Amino acid sequence: MESAFEMKLLQHEEYSDWDARFNCFYDGVLESFAVDFEWSPSVALIVFRTKDQVSPSGWSRVTLRLAGVTSLKLQEGPRSTNRVIFGGLHVLFEDGQVAVEWEWDDPPASLSELMTSECNVVADSLEWDAHHM
Hints:
The chain is mainly beta.
């Protein structure tokens, strides 16, 4: 799952500024979700369309690359969708891992809580890139 993007590693100390730049991904849209099991360990590639404070249009397409996936869950229901990110994207750094979740309104307090979400990925690292729309 190679990409032509210029991915940047998201560090815990950079997270607050990154989150503010993309307005916590509130009302963003999940465009695609792919997992490559040929890589060892697995890689998840998630693309969101979201607000971006540095984009001339105010919107960007943000690609997240989570490498070393240890757990993931993406569940759609017949009467619900996880495509629109109403509650924002929550990123959690814990025990040398990084995890993302986009089902809940409130951020999870722990990795074990985050893993009960219907939409989450836990990995060793998170890289990202943004392209203005």
